[in-house]
Write a structure and sequence with these properties.
binds calcium ion, Arc Repressor Mutant, subunit A, alpha/beta, 44% helix, five-stranded parallel β-sheet, disordered N terminus, Rossmann fold, 10 helices, four-stranded antiparallel β-sheet
Length: 225
């Protein structure tokens, strides 16, 4: 039986022209907005590799393999971005896009002619990426679209911790956690950059961060409790 690492290595080799990246090498360059991303791609190895790379930088992903499933998911879940292959079974990506044009979309396609690119962009898509592509380029384009389009989330929940960014309240297992304005500022920075290893210096340089370094340990203990 292949290990998880071994499975991914074989997957990468099978579709050799795609380069996998790690969260650490990407996160060093720039902070990433975390989003919910719907991947619509019928080629299973590509869908899987795209999903794993997006997840590695902290995004939540939903994978579907045809257009009808994409529309069903969009009816049931709020997503921030759709990665939409054009050549799909039953309903092609252009047709799918007619139904989802309010959701930011990047077309992923093997079609590389100028007319296809123009069609995708004139329909209103936010970007267009031709296969084969470098995974690092995909992550950069995803990040660029999210920075243009993503609305700031007003709530965050994880394992019993609830944060209301509007009222600036924190709850642990439904019990309110008292915090000072500076403590809340730092918590907001950490949540908005979750799943990314932030150096202490980087953390303090971010908007909203504080110089009260002792606060960090307090939030660490709350999230671990
Ligand atoms: Ca396809």
């Amino acid at each position: 039986m292949l290990s998880r690492t071994g499975s991914m290595a074989r997957l990468s080799r099978d579709i050799g022209f795609y380069n996998s990246v790690t969260s650490s090498c990407y996160a060093r360059e720039e902070l990433v907005l975390v989003a919910t991303i719907l991947i619509v791609e019928d080629e299973i190895p590509i869908n899987e590799l795209v999903r794993r790379n997006l997840q590695s930088v902290g995004h939540r992903c939903i994978s579907v393999f045809d257009g009808k499933a994409a529309l069903l998911e969009l009816e049931q879940h709020e997503v921030d971005l759709v990665l939409l292959d054009i050549m799909l079974p039953e309903m092609d990506g252009y047709e799918v896009y007619q139904h989802i044009c309010k959701t930011p979309t990047i077309f992923l396609t093997a079609r590389s002619s100028l007319s296809d690119k123009v069609k995708g962009l004139t329909l209103g898509a936010d970007d267009y990426l031709v296969k084969p592509f470098e995974m690092l380029e995909l992550l950069a384009r995803v990040d660029a679209v999210l920075r243009r389009t993503k609305k700031e989330s007003k709530h965050f929940e994880l394992d019993g911790v609830k944060i209301d960014f509007e009222s600036r309240q924190v709850f642990l297992n439904e019990n309110p956690v008292e915090c000072t304005p500076k403590e809340f500022d730092l918590l907001e920075v950490l949540v908005n950059n979750r799943n990314i290893a932030l150096s202490r210096d980087k953390c303090w340089s971010l908007p909203g961060a504080t110089t009260m370094q002792g606060i960090q340990g307090r939030w660490m203990s709350i999230f671990r409790s």
